[in-house]
Structure formats: structure tokens, C-alpha cells
Design brief:
The structure is a single chain. The chain is of the alpha+beta class and 397 residues long. The strands form two sheets. It has a five-stranded mixed β-sheet with strand order 1-2-5-4-3. A two-stranded antiparallel ribbon has the order 6-7. β6 and β7 form a beta hairpin. The two termini are 33 Å apart.
């Protein structure tokens, strides 16, 4: 379905921590054939696959890759490795700072996930750092990050911060070194329902060691749930997200699947779990027992949606979905229809950072933002929606 082009099939083969004989042979055969190397490189970057692709090509069949292409990919790989090492150094510094000041901080995604699924912090494309803390510790953590050279991006007033804390789950801090930290006090925004309690996740966190540094991260079961939620929230638009989930399952044989199911049910995220596991089984060739999946009717519907995701994985252009398409996808992803409707209404009416950037109001007039946001969205997207016969753009701006 998704491998109509050899370049796409090559990326699917490379989406592994290690290659068996058959996968290595298939990659070699594909590289020996006709490939559009510019297309391959663009798709590898878009799909978060460049480090894995280079590692496997350089290991399996470097002599078959045009030297200019291989050298260029090597340069990108080295640059990504250096950035990942820098980010991990920043992560260690910040976790130590928070711990010394009595704040329990749990790291996830980023280099921590890369180490867990690929055995190397540099095999996922460098991005930001994700840290979750207890909601009540936000202001203290904000001040500590400021003392470490990080600033809130963008700056917010106290009333804006209070609103953001109520409706969202994270905010960015940036440093002069251009590292970005997503500080979380929750695991999902209210505009995309997923009721996994962040305090429970923090309480269940486990200690791991990376390069001699001990740190807290999610338990195995919570990691699976979060990866399924995160992929679903972004409509599984990157192959590497599927690869991370599949390789995490493959690398951990002691997962308590009844516990995963119970927590997914409690978080009203069973459809998200089922969808993620279907994709991991189909594209990652990982063994997942049938008993883990939802009831027959739900499985049939989600299986069709998983097939659609696979068909569109390499066809989609980067960028957000339109609001109507998001609504339709959420109807299939979320366990309850009323959560879909609530999420949609929140995306229209609840003010966000972009609204505050577009219009500055004094704190006393803050409620006017609830009127301003739908008007701003209508003005921003109305013309383009009419031009495309009524299909509006995403309403997350």
C-alpha cells in the first residue's frame, strides 16, 4: 500500500533498530535499482528517518550509494549527533537543577526515547526536550529555567499564563544556545482529549541510566500509551513515530498488557492504543497479541483507518490537516463522540498564544479573547475555506 515507490519501501525497511538478513538483502536490492535520491532524502527528513536511514545504508551497502549522497548524509548524521549530545547535556543540567530544588521532573521523548528504542540518543532527529512536572510546580520551575538562561517563548502576562495552564499541557522555553524545552504539566491539551493522569504517570515513573546519568522517565506501560496518544494526536504523519512504538515493544518483553489496556480504558484512549498497535504490527512487524485489541466492531473500523494512514503516509504534504478533516479523524480516534465535539469547540473558542500575539488586551478585558478568537479564525481562514468549497484550514492557530 505505501511502498508503491522503491524509496518508500527503503524507508520502511530502515525503520528498525537492527536489520535481519532478509531486510538487509531487500535494502541492498532496492539501492541497486533505480532510486530518486533527492526524493529519498526529502522523505527521510520529513518522516524523521534520516539518522536511521544513513546508519543502515552505511552498514549494509555503502558501496551502492552514490558517494556524494553518502557523504552528504554522513554530514547530516554527524550534525544531528552533535545536536543530540548537546541537548542531552542540557537535559542533564536542567533535571539536576529541578531536583536540587525539590521538583520531581520526568523526561520523555527526545534523546530518552531514542536511547530506549534504538540504543543510541542520536538515532532520532534532534528536536526539543520534553520534561513533565507536577502542575503546582510550574511557577517555581519557570523561575529556575529562567535562572539557567531559558526564557518563556513567547512571553506571556500572568493572566495569559494562568489561562494557558488551565487549557493546555505545555509551553516552550528557549535558550541563547537555541535549545528548546517543552515544559509539561499535563500530557494532553483539553482540545484533544486523553485522560491519562500526569500525576499518576509521575508517581509510576522509573529510573534509567543514560551515559552514566540516572534520570526518571515513563514506565513501560505509560510509554506505550503516550506514544499511541502522541501519534494519534498528529494523525500518525511520521513513519518514525510508528518505528519508535514498534521498536519499544520489541525491546521490552515484560510489558504488562492487561495493565496497558486498563489504563487505556481509564484514559478513554483505547481506540488510540488499538490504532497505534495496528500500525506497529503492520509496518514494524512487531508481535502484538490479538487479545490486546478492542472489540470486533471497533477493530474493523480502526483497521480501515490504519490502512488509510498507511496509504497516505508518504503522499501527504507536511502541515496540519484542515479542521473538517481533523474532526472526521477524531471521530474515529477518540473513544467518545462527546469528547470529539468538546475538543472541536475548544479549538474554536478557547484563546491560545497566537490570539494573545495578535491582540494585546489588559487583564480586565481578558474575557473578550473568547469572542476575538472565532472572529480571528473566521477572518484568517474564511476566504481560503470558501475558495476550497467550504473545507476550512486547521483551527489551531
Amino acid at each position: 500500500m505505501i511502498t508503491t515507490r522503491p524509496e518508500n519501501e527503503l524507508l520502511v525497511c530502515a525503520a528498525r533498530r537492527s536489520l535481519d538478513h532478509d531486510l538487509a538483502a531487500r535494502m541492498t536490492a532496492l539501492v541497486d535499482g533505480e532510486l530518486d535520491w533527492n526524493y529519498l532524502r526529502d522523505k527521510a527528513t520529513q518522516q524523521g528517518m534520516m539518522p536511521l536511514l544513513y546508519r543502515h545504508l552505511n552498514s549494509v551497502c555503502p558501496q551502492s550509494v552514490p558517494s556524494a549522497i553518502l557523504n552528504s548524509m554522513k554530514e547530516e548524521f554527524i550534525a544531528n549527533s552533535q545536536t543530540c549530545l548537546y541537548l542531552f547535556g542540557e537535559l542533564r543540567k536542567l533535571l539536576r537543577l529541578l531536583d536540587q530544588n525539590g521538583i520531581t521532573a520526568v523526561a520523555f521523548k527526545g534523546p530518552v526515547l531514542s536511547e530506549a528504542v534504538y540504543g543510541d540518543i542520536a538515532l532520532r532527529q534532534a528536536g526539543d526536550l520534553d520534561i513533565v512536572i507536577e502542575p503546582g510546580a510550574f511557577r517555581q520551575a519557570r523561575d529556575l529555567l529562567s535562572s539557567a538562561g531559558y526564557r518563556l517563548q513567547p512571553p506571556l502576562t500572568e493572566s495569559q499564563q494562568a489561562s494557558h495552564l488551565r487549557s493546555h499541557c505545555e509551553i516552550q522555553f528557549v535558550s541563547d544556545g537555541m535549545s528548546v524545552v517543552d515544559l509539561h504539566w499535563g500530557l494532553s491539551p483539553k482540545s484533544f482529549h486523553f485522560a491519562l493522569d500526569p500525576q499518576h504517570v509521575i508517581d509510576r515513573s522509573k529510573t534509567i541510566s543514560i551515559q552514566g546519568t540516572s534520570l526518571l522517565t515513563f514506565s513501560n506501560e505509560d510509554t506505550i500509551l503516550y506514544l499511541c496518544f502522541h501519534g494519534s494526536k498528529h494523525y500518525w504523519s511520521k513513519l518514525e513515530w510508528i518505528s519508535s512504538l514498534a521498536e519499544f515493544i520489541r525491546s521490552n518483553k515484560d510489558i504488562d498488557w492487561p495493565m496497558v489496556i486498563a489504563r487505556a480504558n481509564g484514559a478513554r484512549g483505547r481506540h488510540m492504543l488499538t490504532l497505534g498497535l495496528m500500525l506497529a504490527r503492520e509496518l514494524g512487524d512487531v508481535d502484538v497479541a490479538d487479545s490486546v485489541f478492542s472489540s470486533r466492531g471497533e477493530v474493523d473500523s480502526l483497521r480501515r483507518y490504519a490502512a488509510e494512514i498507511q496509504r497516505g503516509l508518504f503522499a501527504r504534504e507536511p502541515g496540519p490537516l484542515g479542521a473538517l478533516e481533523m474532526f472526521r479523524c477524531n471521530l474515529r480516534i477518540m473513544d467518545r463522540k462527546r469528547d470529539v465535539i468538546t475538543s472541536f469547540l475548544r479549538s474554536i473558542f478557547v484563546p491560545t498564544i497566537s490570539d494573545w500575539q495578535a491582540l494585546t488586551l489588559p487583564a480586565a478585558l481578558y474575557p473578550l479573547y473568547y469572542l476575538f478568537r472565532p472572529l480571528r479564525l473566521l477572518k484568517k481562514y474564511g476566504a481560503s475555506a470558501l475558495a476550497r468549497t467550504g473545507s476550512p484550514q486547521v483551527l489551531s492557530g
